[in-house]
Amino acid sequence: MAGQDVISEIERAVAGANSANARVGLVFLDDIDAALRLTVAGLAAQAGVSQATVVRFSQSLGYAGLRDLRMDLAREASRRAVELERANIAEGRLNTSDSAATMIAKVAHHEATSIQRTAREVDPEDIDKVAQAIAGARRVVSFGLGASALAASDLAQKLQRIGLDCLFTQDSHLQLVHAAMAPQGSVAVGFSFSGQTFEVHRALELASARGAFTVAVTGARSSPVAKAADTVLLANARESPLRVAALASRMVQLAIVDFIFVRVAQLCQADIDAAVEASKEAVRPQKLDSRREGQN
Q: Which residue has the higher pLDDT, 31 or 139?
């Protein structure tokens, strides 16, 4: 757990935990400062569980016991408070009463810190493994719905620009067709921040049955989508309670796409220049400046 965001880990554990463990996690999330002052017995009483459950919850996060969990939790809470102060944000939550200037500062802060947390926690070896698989793949297929479709589409467009065969469609049924028709030696990348999207889970299963190497980009490590993949790339983001759209979650998925793409570009450097130039030439006549020159 060293160097990781323990608050986000608790949030993910609560989302995927049984009711007893979830109650322990919620005690921490409801009031971190108060929870840090509680003993094992106090936490157990407040959560309505046994003291053994409190210890097991700490161990499920990778700690030897409650003491070590509390130490990391205190450090993380302090770090987040400093981040808010540096961003000149008195309160981290978005509120309907915020001015436009305050809202902009808060959104920028949430998105920037989410990307930073993702960069700290994503495993470079996993990024490298995925990039190497894509660089040598017969085909890449990407899946995602809603906000996650933006990341899936972005991956496809970027890989196409450097001459790699990557399929993506907004049609969820055609995504399943792409998965079912993926040739052996393909790479299938599924985007689902919740990890609960049925179509993405099904697409990864279909692609895996065809012999594809499967990748899940998700915010939930123990989710069904994550469990259906050979490799999981964790997108770490916390959405504001005033959540009218996917904000931070969308940004961290796009950041992971960039991590993958740049690594693939490094691996394909010998062939990339010609591919990039060819893609530029293909669209250059469609630019307004080029059309005006042709009319003169």
A: 139
